[in-house]
Amino acid sequence: MRRYFPGLLLVMTLPAAADERFTGPWPMDELKRAPASSVSEPDPATGLREVFYENVPLDGKPARVFAYYAVPRTGEGPFPAMVLVHGGGGKAFPEWARLWADRGYAAIAMDLSGRGPDGERLPDGGPDQSDEEKFRDFEPEEVGRMWSYHAVAAAVRAHSFLAARPEVDRDRIGVTGISWGGYLTCIVAGIDDRVKVAVPVYGCGFLDENSAWIPRFEEMGEARTRRWCDLFDPSRYLPGVSCPILFVNGTNDFAYPLDSYRKSYRLVEGPVDLCITVGMLHGHPQGWAPEEIGLFVESILEGGTPPPRLTAPEIDGGSGRISARVASNRSYGKAKLHYTTDSGAWQERSWSTIDAEIGDSRVEAELPRERPIVAFFTVEDDRGAVASSPHVTAGK
Questions:
Q1: SS3 of 205, please?
Q2: Number of domains in the chain
Q3: Are the C-beta atoms of 330 and 309 separated by less than 8 Å?
Q4: pLDDT per residue over 301-353, tens digit each?
Q5: CA-CA distance, 172 to 151, in Å (whole number)?
Q6: In terms of residue numbers, what domain contains 272?
Q7: Residue 151 to residue 85: CA distance in whole angstroms
Q8: Based on the domain organization, do 258 and 124 belong to the same domain?
Q9: I want to staple 257 with a disulfide (CB 3.0 to 4.6 A). Which of 10, 62, 281, 346 is the partner?
Q10: What's the pLDDT tens digit per position in 29-41?
Q11: Residue 338 and residue 375 in contact, taking contact as beta carbons nearer than 8 Å
Q12: Of 301, 331, 347, which residue constitutes the final position of a domain?
């Protein structure tokens, strides 16, 4: 039975029973062990270390992953830690690892395209991250050659690397990823019960129903698409998420539209937090920039105050008013209603924004009469942290 509680402020964890958590093709007992690794001395200027660690084999041969590893330059450990998962066209970003180290976290940012620090292919690297590799045909016995298989394993192994470090608190490790990294974060959070907090940015599931890759699935045909989705679509794994999770996206994202997005976060059985921004650009710097990500992780791993949380809006058919409940441990002074009366592709819809009224733990506004209409609220607390409600639709 699915349980969706977007209106609760308290952080709740509803762990999936061991026999309920679907872990797909990944050998979790093996991946949870600390991988063989080599770690360089820290760079005197940046404090960054270069890491190579063991991943699952490729074609029966050992494979390695390259990563940057950073720890805070001040303070004493053990530190909380984050696994940083890049998206398509990305790499091991040293500045991303440094960003989290400056926040007080140990952080590992790995490369998921089989490349090293110079951008060249490693002789023992994993599959490339091209769409041709992601969506290539495969037989059941060839799962171990697929990019998604290796990328998820690399992220889980990065967690295992962190958990074995003496300067890391193994019980306070989270994961965040951008675009395809958000896609991977959804899977990792669903299969790895050690993850304490997850923040997928852009990425979601139901890629075969609506996403930038519909042409790929049309080329694959029904049977191949079903085989791919049964193993590699996040919709298979999101029901297993048992940690707090924040979904970050834009209203017009070219790759991961809001319909697939909502279907994805509704699969999570525990509380879900949202941060949806009108017109948010798609990219790595844009994906790691939102302050809400750091504040949300801090609220889980360090006992900080979480951003507000909103329930799904309700529409009063008689008055035309729309409202949502707000739970927040901090004051909030800004509330907005965002809506679109456009139909068709989500990427092309134009959104309007109006001020919403703030009541006693509630926000509300006059909903325009035009139908169909899609609408959601945002509220901003006194730190500038913005939280979103799920979107709702009125009319056909």
A1: coil
A2: 2
A3: no
A4: 999 999 999 999 999 988 889 999 999 988 988 999 999 999 999 999 999 99
A5: 22
A6: 28-301
A7: 9
A8: yes
A9: 346
A10: 999 999 999 999 9
A11: yes
A12: 301
